[in-house]
Amino acid sequence: MKVKRGLLIGRMQPVHNGHVEIIKKIFNLVDELIIGIGSGQISHEINNPFTAGERVLMLQNTLKETEIPSDSYYIIPIVDINNNSLWATHVESLIPEFNVVFSGNPLVKRLFKENNYDVKTPPLFDRTNLSGRKIRNKMVKGKNWQSCLPESVVKIIKEIDGINRLKEINKKEINE
Amino acid sequence: MKVKRGLLIGRMQPVHNGHVEIIKKIFNLVDELIIGIGSGQISHEINNPFTAGERVLMLQNTLKETEIPSDSYYIIPIVDINNNSLWATHVESLIPEFNVVFSGNPLVKRLFKENNYDVKTPPLFDRTNLSGRKIRNKMVKGKNWQSCLPESVVKIIKEIDGINRLKEINKKEINE
Amino acid sequence: MKVKRGLLIGRMQPVHNGHVEIIKKIFNLVDELIIGIGSGQISHEINNPFTAGERVLMLQNTLKETEIPSDSYYIIPIVDINNNSLWATHVESLIPEFNVVFSGNPLVKRLFKENNYDVKTPPLFDRTNLSGRKIRNKMVKGKNWQSCLPESVVKIIKEIDGINRLKEINKKEINE
Amino acid sequence: MKVKRGLLIGRMQPVHNGHVEIIKKIFNLVDELIIGIGSGQISHEINNPFTAGERVLMLQNTLKETEIPSDSYYIIPIVDINNNSLWATHVESLIPEFNVVFSGNPLVKRLFKENNYDVKTPPLFDRTNLSGRKIRNKMVKGKNWQSCLPESVVKIIKEIDGINRLKEINKKEINE
Amino acid sequence: MKVKRGLLIGRMQPVHNGHVEIIKKIFNLVDELIIGIGSGQISHEINNPFTAGERVLMLQNTLKETEIPSDSYYIIPIVDINNNSLWATHVESLIPEFNVVFSGNPLVKRLFKENNYDVKTPPLFDRTNLSGRKIRNKMVKGKNWQSCLPESVVKIIKEIDGINRLKEINKKEINE
Amino acid sequence: MKVKRGLLIGRMQPVHNGHVEIIKKIFNLVDELIIGIGSGQISHEINNPFTAGERVLMLQNTLKETEIPSDSYYIIPIVDINNNSLWATHVESLIPEFNVVFSGNPLVKRLFKENNYDVKTPPLFDRTNLSGRKIRNKMVKGKNWQSCLPESVVKIIKEIDGINRLKEINKKEINE
């Protein structure tokens, strides 16, 4: 395998400006990048509002407006397997071969290290404002979430009525 | 589909007087009612002490003593699927066709709305005293839980030694 | 447990006149009957065309037109568990307590015997004409399948476009 | 949703010239195409020798050498769910929204029709020589399989030692 | 890891004299041996009549009557995972580290080779008479199966009423 | 079944001196003991750092240095089934027949009681110092964990770089 191909995994709930920054910076280090959309089967939760398909669309629409060539990345949903011993091998089976992993998640780092991968901490971005949790919080509270997201993502969230989805599932249950 | 058939889903841990009140009131709005016993595969937990089969029996024995005709309801256990995108379709596959959903649970409401159902909040009942959590609490503490439940349910819980089950699984573990 | 409650399990693809005959005869032997709809999660296959929900509806609509009291039977979908050692316990967890099992399936008989149940072979009916496989065959070939089924079942199959479903999934694939 | 986005699902074991022909023709009918790699979790079988990741790579490497713009298709592994009632919804959750389905598989067609999609039979190609089964057969027997596959696929199969994999899993077991 | 530890995987339905022969011979090549009982979750089938627990007992009772030291082997049920890409890693997670695999199954051999193990074909034994399939056949037909099995296994099969289990599940179903 | 065979289930994360003490004392009450390694599929978590295979090895290496005869115990990983109604039957299917259960876990005790087993609380040991949670805590903080574990376990944890594994997965995630 001569190409230098990296792997970046994130839940991307939702895709935000920080992800785009990171991806651009990683492309200084690799020829191709596989972007795994983690917890692919989870949606309609406070911390995981969007489906894998919605997140794939957010990311592809965003990246196609950057200068990164579309044939140099792969966007692939990764469903959870709930077995840490198997997880890295599970990821390997779903995506093209790769030789470097970018992750800030200690468990992900450890699991790929135990599978003998070169694991790097991804480049930093403005973490004070850009974090999935903070952005979802703004969405629920009706604050300015749009400025944290690429335009294409804002558009998709509106089309799928995403803010209402988040607000509704955030309500308390009436009775049991 | 000419008949007006509703769906009510609840974990019913255990079936209590509030459930019976709601079901009676819903029958003013529908011809038939499907009652889905949620989290069907879960039992022997503090918040889910009874098996699906025990809850089916509680409900059928209770309803047969009301004036509701037995051939106008369906009691069906619904096992969890742990995938919100699939859950409403999963329920659809297990039960007869329906055209209105009654639920006080925000996620359930949202998921059926996204599947294009008419979703209504179920009629209110005395929620100060009647709530699954409060009743289970009384059972563990040996307080008067019987007054909150239909007689048939009290009888079943005694037959299956249900109070001891709840008390025992509530104990602390000795060592690890 | 004083009531004599039986269990009958069948895939009922579809519910046919033989099932009704059997159920009527079993009611000479029991007070109540649980009817488990087997392979509940399977549908849209040549040998399993109908969903659990469709089969529940077929059976309840059929039985409500017999003399059997509606509050003496339970109709419950049973999803497969693909583990024979656990299957009988899995069924036990989903349905009310029972004390006799009716089955013509050797594996079902053995598994419940190993769980210490009284297992009986169900009463016979006209097996020359009434068999799921033969009836599905007639449906695909456009022969007279209606005469083998209760009227309510014929009506449901028409409403859900069931014959076309069966015919379409029976076609050969064009290319791989 | 203004863009016309299609869905094509195939196991692509392996990606062959027929797939490329079909995809090119479908692009006369749609703006964007989602290509679902079916049975994503299955590999190392006679009829499913390659992993999802290997098939993603085959397809992306092949398509990037065509004139189809790389930002107009999505290549996404679809793991089986073994529940026909849920399958189309499962696919919907993993991929971007789409409005037309291309499939020659009768079950796939039926399932998407029941979910109210426009379903089309994909354009024809030379099916006498191009079929997954025939190509795998040639691989096992050492016949000229290379001429049926895009060059990039031939290269990948060599890199992963694919022919030996197929030949080895095709052997008989020595003893039980 | 200084000890030479081997892995042998078999379904052992049932444990027979051939298995004992092989295990003895393998101990000429290794210090310790892990014996994985394959398809651990499968039982009560014609080709898989015995539970994992029954097979563990058969094997331990048999081996303790040989000269092989009891502290040099590990008997561990391996449940199926139905994903060939993950299977070898799944086995690795359930058993102690090992450095050589013994298998006559082409898929098992290939999967462990792809995980970089040294894989050997196990030593031969009298395969004309000793094969799981042939022995199960003798059991069903009431022929002399006892001579193919270690005495401890014969005893266990009698205690669990194993022959009747096999004969009963081999019967035809009466009706559908 | 004439032999008195007990069952002890524990997660053993990791095997510590308390486990050895208990096992020795239980052997005063039984002829044979099955030791089930609970949550077998879980590893690489703060509270469950080690794989089933690593725990099997820890236990077998430890016990072979005691006076307990190696052919009188069975060490078997038990994967979780996440269904309390089925769990005791699931355990039964994976291990040899047994007639007494030792457990300090209230749920385990209840589930086996409902399956009609004789259930005993295991003999006590020095719980002030010996508890899985406390020992894992010492590992993370670099305190003297070695004194709580049998020598063989200390050796294995060093060989598999276990302390670093625990420390790494204990770190906070950088960004989402």
From TrEMBL, chains A, B, C, D, E, F:
Pathway: Cofactor biosynthesis; NAD(+) biosynthesis; NAD(+) from nicotinamide D-ribonucleotide: step 1/1. SUPFAM superfamilies: Nucleotidylyl transferase (SSF52374). One of its GO terms (cellular component) is cytoplasm. It holds the Pfam family CTP_transf_like. It comes from the Archaea. InterPro entries: Cyt_trans-like, NMN_Atrans_arc, Rossmann-like_a/b/a_fold. This is Nicotinamide-nucleotide adenylyltransferase. Residues 8-137 form the Cytidyltransferase-like domain. It is an enzyme of class 2 (transferase). It comes from Methanobrevibacter curvatus. Its EC number is 2.7.7.1. Coiled coil: none annotated. One of its GO terms (molecular function) is ATP binding. GO terms for biological process: NAD+ biosynthetic process. Keywords: ATP-binding, Cytoplasm, Hydrolase, NAD, Nucleotide-binding, Nucleotidyltransferase, Pyridine nucleotide biosynthesis, Transferase. It is found in: Cytoplasm. Belongs to the archaeal NMN adenylyltransferase family. Gene3D superfamilies: HUPs. It catalyses: beta-nicotinamide D-ribonucleotide + ATP + H(+) = diphosphate + NAD(+).
